[in-house]
Design brief:
It contains eleven helices and ten strands. The protein is an alpha/beta fold. Bound molecules: adenosine-5'-triphosphate (ATP) and magnesium ion.
């Protein structure tokens, strides 16, 4: 089954053609990162206008790269929730129109399901991904239809690299931080969630304090390479159960920077970067990254204690590209049990939307009416 997946929930305009929920035939992503790097964050109206400009060329390129025509496509899948209102509108209006014109069934997909299902995608490794993946095995064999990308085990046999239910999914992205249980495909139960900021947002805000570029995640990793991860101790927010809080951690970094520089707590945060030395930025980056990843994984360990029958752990969303998080997760839960998406599918893309739709279809979900599909800027995964 060939599905065209369309994603526009935030600042990436993306489309992809995926076969049977796992084999990526094309994956086109136009990112607006360069535009928003200047502002240090996304401006919703600007994002929507940019989606409008590139949406159709992106869809056409996805078909062309896959060497497919509309006749070959079995279904269209699109992100309809959650996300920025204007951005979601462009993607869904495009998908609705294409579904009507080309007489294809339309599937409306929740963005976090897509991030989770990015773990089932196969794709050839790009040259530029080789550094990130060095030392890791090649992807599981292409003919293992539903097996996910297994990054970590030395030489996993196709069987070993299969994801098994029940599993725990840790979704770590720009707008969400959640732990979910999955007993089977398309069965989700949220067991932990952030009470304030998302972890990706926290990376972005801490980067801003340190004068590092947007998006903050990769910039903090890069800056922290020469820093001491135990140089600064930031308290981990005490939130009961499996819930998270990240606004306190961001404030702890802010206060520690002010203290280190001998400046008062009312000193404007945007000016701190002008006083920081490179070595201090490195130490703050490394210490923050370590605290944030430990905090995430301590909660995941707690979830494992509560659900010891868990067979696999799936880490998903933009922050899942983080190398330290990957290493630490493998150390804590065992290489054979932990799954991450190929880094090129960690952030927003159309392939993961197609994968999520495929498993919805396999679970009996019916197509949606293209004349009636609505968007929802906020909603929980169901
Ligand atoms: N290597 C990395 N380490 C840590 N964080 C990272 C890394 N790469 C990207 N990120 C973070 O991931 C976030 C973007 O992820 P993603 O695209 O999944 O979020 P989003 O789509 O904006 O939000 P959501 O998926 O919740 O709607 C940014 O906050 C970015 O800083
Ligand atoms: Mg996302």
């Amino acid at each position: 089954m060939l599905i065209l997946g369309i994603e526009t929930s935030c600042d990436e305009t993306a489309a992809a053609v995926v076969e049977d929920g796992s084999k990526v035939l094309s994956n086109v992503v136009v990112s607006q990162i360069d535009i928003f790097a200047e502002y240090g964050g996304v401006i919703p109206e600007v994002a929507a206008r940019n989606h409008l400009e590139v949406m159709m060329p992106v869809v056409k390129k996805a078909l062309k790269d896959a060497k497919k025509t509309w006749d070959d496509i079995d279904a269209i899948a699109v992100t309809h929730t959650p996300g920025l209102l204007g951005s979601l509108l462009i993607g869904t209006l495009t998908a609705r129109t294409l579904a009507i014109v080309h007489k294809k069934p339309l599937y409306a997909v929740h963005h976090l399901k897509s991030h989770i299902y990015a773990n089932w995608l196969h794709a050839p490794i790009d040259e530029k991904d080789k550094n990130i993946l060095s030392g890791l095995p090649e992807l599981a064999s292409e003919d293992e239809g539903l097996s996910p990308v297994k990054t970590g085990a030395k030489n996993p046999s196709p069987k070993e690299s299969l994801l098994s239910f029940p599993l725990l999914a840790l979704v770590v992205s720009g707008g969400h931080t959640q732990i979910l249980r999955m007993d089977a495909h398309n069965h989700f139960e949220i067991i932990g969630t952030t009470r304030d900021d998302a972890v990706g947002e926290c990376f972005d805000k801490v980067a801003k304090i340190l004068g590092l570029p947007y998006p903050g995640g990769p910039a903090i990793t890069k800056a922290g390479k020469t820093g001491g991860k135990n140089r600064y101790k930031f308290p981990k927010p005490k939130v009961e159960g499996l819930d998270f809080s990240f606004s306190g951690l961001k404030t702890a970094v802010l206060r520690t920077v002010q203290k280190e520089l001998g400046l008062p707590i009312n000193h404007p945060s945007h000016d701190l970067k002008n006083h920081l030395k490179e070595a201090q930025i490195a130490d703050f980056s490394a210490s923050f990254e370590k605290t944030a990843t430990d905090y995430l994984l301590e909660k995941l360990e707690k979830a494992y204690e509560m659900y010891p029958e868990t067979k696999s752990f799936v880490i998903a969303g933009g922050v899942s590209a983080n190398e330290l998080l990957r290493e630490e997760a493998k150390n804590r839960f065992g290489e054979e049990k932990v799954f991450f998406p190929n880094p090129k599918f960690s952030g927003d893309n159309g392939a993961m939307v197609a994968a999520a739709a495929y498993f919805e279809i396999k679970s009996g979900v019916k197509p949606t009416d293209p004349y009636k599909l609505n968007i929802l800027p906020r909603s929980e995964i169901k």
